[in-house]
Specification:
Blueprint: E1 4-5, H1 6-13, E2 16-18, E3 26-27, E4 31-32, E5 43-45, H2 58-63, E6 68-71, E7 79-81, H3 85-98, E8 104-109, H4 114-125, E9 131-132, H5 143-148, E10 157-161, H6 169-176, E11 181-184, H7 192-195, H8 198-205, H9 207-210, E12 217-221, H10 225-228, E13 237-242, E14 249-256, E15 261-268, E16 271-280, H11 284-297, H12 302-311, E17 321-324, E18 330-334, H13 340-354, E19 359-364, H14 373-385, E20 391-395, H15 400-418, E21 436-440, H16 443-453, E22 459-463, H17 471-478
Parallel strand pairs: 4-5, 5-6, 6-7, 8-10, 8-11, 9-10, 11-12, 12-13, 13-14, 18-22, 19-20, 19-22, 20-21
Antiparallel strand pairs: 1-3, 2-7, 14-15, 15-16, 17-18
Helix pairs in contact: 4-11, 11-12, 13-14, 14-15, 16-17
């Protein structure tokens, strides 16, 4: 953060200094919302949450070195008192960003793949200048300004992830840190229950390209019609990425190895170079292309882009993390979050990685799907039931639709296998054993059920909505850190 005296922070946030706060005391950062992260020179933002109230930890933050507290009521510490702490946080971030004219802001949005794309792009921009990017998925009205406030006079690039829970959210985030480049990945079914339709989701995601200046660049997915239609909503120049022949930055000759990692030729207007991803799942190609297209617009040579993409490892936790146990069991921890589109991508990755090995999955009901919830969760069940699994464990009290879909798919497959082949027809492939579809009340029971079925060499996919906490299943199976 750029150094700011408390008097200036109070002016920016329309706040009042209390608690014997020294108006000349300088905040140098970081700006934190966890009192345990406070350090000398920091500003502690007291946010009242569902389980804890930051105001109760103000004194601890100042004792740890925080210069002051940004709060909505008086606390036992020097403070800037404001009417709305989140609005004040946004105002502070907006003011700091405006003081950094040499910093280029790149925004990334989409229904799936935002964090992985952001991580790849931040690696690329770091090759040409000091870069600030959010850890994990700091992409909402709290995480976004906190990330912006990490920038200082040395920062040349901010790679920011923008999430929408309703129409207008991305426009709000874009006003905090006006983007010069906007990357839109896809329009899927995440948060369908909030938005009501994919068209409304597209309306919300498109707020990013509407925020771009005339001399900016909109990086759009040529393979997604709803994203492609956003070209008419921006003043900026459009560059296209994807698998389509007409895309400016595209992937050619895509192959996937026995571990589910993709290789391809990266084609750009000025040449091509080979890429061999260390990320798992063919869907990682699309994220890599989006990052490559934005980096190309920033002037990186295609050979450098290809090399950096090929060397990139996963940065954010619980997203296609692949672990091999000593007994040869492979666990795919993709438990950070899920929607119908990412669920399909995860099962495709499982199929590529498992090959002839026995495969298992543990899933949970998808959330925020509104009136479509039962139908879409039943569809997920059918997807899992038809994925050639040896066993499926569905976790939670709301598992009914997934269980119904999975069992229906298993019964249909069994019925088809029992049918007599046509006269003279060659024998078909050996039918797979029917998948065991089990219900677990919680993650502990799910892990126990899986351990009872697994044998050396098996592969397990762990995939579900964030609230389900399925990372605890992966932790139990691997002995890793599930917190």
């Amino acid at each position: 953060m750029i150094p700011l005296p408390l008097a200036r922070i109070a002016e920016i946030t329309s706040g009042a200094l209390t608690g014997m706060a020294d108006p000349r005391a300088v905040v140098r950062g970081p700006v934190v919302i966890d009192s345990r992260a406070a350090e000398p020179g920091s500003l502690f933002v007291a946010i009242k949450g569902d389980r804890a109230d930051g105001h109760d930890f103000a004194a601890q933050a100042v004792a740890a070195g925080a210069v002051a507290v940004l709060a909505e009521r008086p606390v036992e510490a020097p403070a800037v008192i404001v009417g709305d702490v989140l609005a004040a946080l946004a105002a502070l971030a907006t003011a700091v960003c405006a003081e950094l004219p040499d910093c280029t802001v790149v925004g990334v949005t989409g229904s799936a793949g935002k964090t992985s794309t952001k991580d790849l792009l931040a690696r690329l921009t770091a090759r040409i200048g000091p870069t600030v990017a959010p850890p994990g998925s700091f992409n909402n009205e709290i995480g976004h300004p906190l990330t912006v406030l990490r920038a200082d006079e040395t920062t040349r690039y901010q790679v920011l992830e923008l999430s929408a829970r309703n129409v207008g959210h991305i426009a709000h985030l874009a006003r905090i840190a006006p983007p010069k480049i906007g990357v839109v990945l896809n329009v899927g079914t995440a948060h369908l229950g909030v938005f009501g339709s994919r068209e409304t989701i597209a309306r919300a995601k498109g707020e990013l390209v509407e925020a771009l200046p005339a001399d900016g660049v909109a990086v759009l997915n040529a393979d997604d019609p709803l994203v492609a239609a956003m070209a008419g909503r921006t003043r900026a120049r459009v560059t296209w990425y994807g698998r389509a022949d007409g895309a400016d930055v595209r992937a050619e000759d895509v192959t996937v190895d026995e571990r589910g990692r993709a290789s391809f030729t990266l084609r750009t207007p000025s040449g091509s170079a080979p890429v061999g991803l260390r990320l798992y799942g063919e869907h990682a190609v699309d994220n890599a292309l989006a990052a490559a297209a934005a980096a190309y617009e920033l002037g990186l040579p295609v050979a450098v882009i290809a090399r950096e993409l090929s060397e990139a490892e996963p940065r954010s936790r619980w997203r296609m993390e692949v672990s091999d146990r000593a007994d040869g069991v492979t666990v795919i921890n993709d438990a950070y979050n899920a929607n119908p589109d990412s669920m399909r991508a995860a099962f495709n990755a499982l199929d590529a990685l498992a090959g002839p090995r026995r495969r298992f999955a543990v899933v949970a009901s998808l959330a925020e799907l509104g009136e479509h919830s039962d139908a879409l969760n039943e569809e997920v069940g059918r997807l899992a039931g038809g994925a050639g699994l040896a066993g499926l464990v569905v976790v939670g009290e709301d598992a009914g639709p997934i269980l119904a879909g999975a069992r229906a798919a298993v019964e249909e497959a069994a019925g088809a296998a029992a049918g007599e082949p046509a006269s003279g027809a060659p024998p078909g492939p050996e039918p797979r054993p029917a998948v065991r579809v089990l219900h677990a009340a919680d993650t502990a029971q799910a892990a126990a059920l899986l351990e009872g079925m697994l044998a050396p060499g098996d592969v397990v996919l762990v995939k579900g909505s964030r609230a389900a906490g399925l990372e605890r299943v992966a932790h139990a199976l691997t002995g890793g850190d599930g917190q």
